[in-house]
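[Meeting: bench + compute handoff]

Bench side (C.D.) handed over the final construct sequence. Compute side (W.E.) agreed to return the predicted structure before the next meeting so the bench team could plan truncations. Sequence as handed over:
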Amino acid sequence: MLSLLDLFTAAAPAWSSDGLIRALGTSRSTGYRYIKALADIGMLAPVANGHYTLGPRIIELDLQIRHCDPLYKAAGPTLKKLVKETNLSAVLCALFSGSVLCVREELAPESPAHLFSRGQRRPLFRGAASKIILAHLGPHQLRSIYAKHRGSIATSGLGADWDAFRENLADIRRAGYAKTIGEFNPDVIGIAAPIFNKAGQILGSIGVAGADSSFNREEIDRVVGIVRDAGRQVTDRVGVIAVGTDRPARAVG
């Protein structure tokens, strides 16, 4: 039933009841029951001509997450500090369902357009925020990922075979950060470091992004150091905030 919510996108923000039922592939009685159940709890909102949009309960849940999510809370001060110390925009990302989700961002005054924003997903194989997470997944997870996505992995430059893929990720782990240029947006440089939970499993990443054309190459070592420190700070802080609520790293594939 909840998969119905995935149908609502920026390209298709409103759906008719008939359209939802066709997309779900259920019987009409089941489809109407799902729609009514979600509308009754505010996850869907009726609009004109028998159409529905995402409902106000989602706005409430977003506010609750901002107040309650240990990762979101732990990273807030560090994101602001990153912007101040690097003059670059800062992003916080988490591993989610075989992809990387932007959890929070703090934009610099001269931030390039179309940077990673809260709620956006990206694949594991492109961008510094994603690659640093990918590099810290366990061997069994990486085997599964490679078996399913070897074509995308090769296209992304992470390795034409398993051995090359594994070695490229080992290089990222040893460095303690990932750096990419223009992998999503032209002329955007990204630098990211890992965030771990209390068990030492990868939880997400924190990093900076900005215009590569105006980035001072002499500053790279300083910025990398600041980003790596940020990852350690959030790791320490989330361990304190998340007492009894520590999130495990999710399986991906």
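W.E. noted at the follow-up: Residues 31 and 129 are 38 Å apart (CA to CA). C.D. will use this when planning the next construct.
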